[in-house]
UniProtKB/TrEMBL annotation:
Compositional bias per record (Basic and acidic residues), positions renumbered to this chain: 581-590
Sorted UniProt keywords: Membrane, Transmembrane, Transmembrane helix
Protein name, per record: DUF1996 domain-containing protein
Keyword Transmembrane helix: yes
Keyword Electron transport: no
Species per Swiss-Prot/TrEMBL record: Streptomyces albidocamelliae
Amino acid sequence: MLGGGGLVAANVYASASEGWGDGSTTTSGQVLSSGMATIDCPDVGSRLTDVPDGARADVDRQLAALDQQTAAAYGQLRAAGQAGGQDADSVDDSIMNPLKEKRTETIGKMADAIDRAGERPEGLDDLAGCTLRPGEGGGNGDGATAAPSTGSQQGGASEAPGGAGQGGNGPVVSDYVDIASVQPDAQNPPEQSGASRGSFASDCGVNANGLFNSDNVIVAPGVTNGAHHFHDYIGNQSNTAFASDEDLANAKTSCVDQGDKSTYYWPVVRLQNGTQERDAGSPGGGTEGNAGQIVTPKQVTLTFVGNPREKVTAMPRLLRIITGDAKAFVNGPGNANASWSCTGFENRQLKDKYPLCPKGSDVVRTFRFQSCWDGRNIDSANHRTHVAFAGADGACPAGFRAIPQLVQRIVYDIDAPSVQDGGRTVPLFAVDSFPEQLHKPVTDHGDFINVFDEDLMGKMVDCINSGRTCGPDGGDGGDNGDGGGNGTGGGDGSTASPTASPGDGATAAPTASSGATAGPGDDATGEPGDGNTAEPGDGNTTEPGDDSATAPGDDETSAPTASADDQAPRTEASTAPGRTTRHDKGDKATPVKSAEPRSTSADSAPAPAASASGSRTPASSASDQATAAAYAPPAGAGTEPQASRGSLAETGAQLWPAAIGVLLALSGLFMLVRAKRLRY
């Protein structure tokens, strides 16, 4: 995820303790079967584990510049391929050598900035050169490659030779595997007597109000399009590249509990079906190979769990955590932490493949964040070394303490692609990525900034350490006892309660209290996709199976709904894929505010702002400092839940009994008057 992309740079504090799908701790190797050529550049950011605070802003800008240079060079490489290709010498002269020159200059500026504030780093100049990695044949091993299922490409270019997907840079059919063919994962380690067995859930919606941008305030603060791919945002409603800590603390939130202003974000998932979203002409969108119909999640579950060996301590306010590696395709698996699965099969997790789910089963992305903190810093120079994963036995590294582990589960109504014809009949799906990362599933990643108020964080820690299952608005599911159940107390009864899972986070997924169908804090709202409530913006997304189809084990894997109207601020705009067909350049806003340098010490984090009131006021879909790549669909463009409107047929069905009653009453009155007349 760090600047420069590239070579493997393993880090014990950032490693998810995994190899290439075999559970080993090996960090060598790269993803095979790219299906097309790409550019592999050494990862400069991973080498910078100690950057003085005074140089941090300059270094972040130069790392972002390295990313931009790599993306631009990859664009040239694609264009050359579409034009009929070039020989190796020509590619070196026109693309690779100029890229090395630009990187050499940028790395020099970075070293100078560090030298002015501290000790000049050694060896950075050796990281300037990049390698052209040739394509390794077709996506499925027989020369077949995926292609857009319908329509033209979003960026307007024809498909690159040997390429795939709507943007011409992936995915390929070898990126997918039948979930039924995957072996179940190992069980979690046994809990010990000092374990923290409880869980705490926060409900922040599914981004139905459409908050997207291609920034990354953690990795590239103050840089527009620093991510080079689009993110879904839930929780904090003011997350842009230019958001200061104070902006985040004072922002509105989509979370049910207004004490949670944390920001949760991840790359969007798109269907490669020919749809041209409004970012078709935007950096981070179609111009960088991120094309197709953005899929709004069916469900998002945010659960904080404990540690199998010890009690947890509170997260420091404004703690930043990145899990996974957005550049794992070229970096290797050292920091990768992707987990893909299907509902009903969540004991089987995939790292470097997308799942093909059976009819009636939904695609699931699960992120298990680092759960050990160094006790001092809210961030680090490479955004990783201040936090760590627990070991296989649940123990934190020396000098680190256990904190609540965020387990993020995102569910999508997506049909299994027709890989036999390259996604032409049923479209492929893929995450947004840096253009040279080719939409590989291993590049999946999640980002989190803790903006819980101190009181709510204290309740979370108490809940987890006392073995209770708690949810939004103070819901409390009671004591978990020995950790084997979800409690028998009151509360919402539907809060997901996964057990703590040290290591790579690819073990058993969150489960929910059986029989729960209502979302936290709203007994009247059904589970998304159960036929009782229409998910906002899902009208253009084909659901897998029919209404009667049930995923294996679905009762055990259901989780709290996040679609209730009163649970998350909404704008009138909708984020449903396919609701817009072009990018409106007039929506772009030029940032006028520069990012402010921030200290990474936990002691220097701003004091919590006053707790927000309990009223849920709709929040703006973007801050005033929206970047040029940020957008929200036009007002009134979206579809609202049908349950909140009612059709003409429904209205008639409700009125006709009353009409008959009126007629009967009038008939009775007429007969009564006539009878009186006959009597006289």
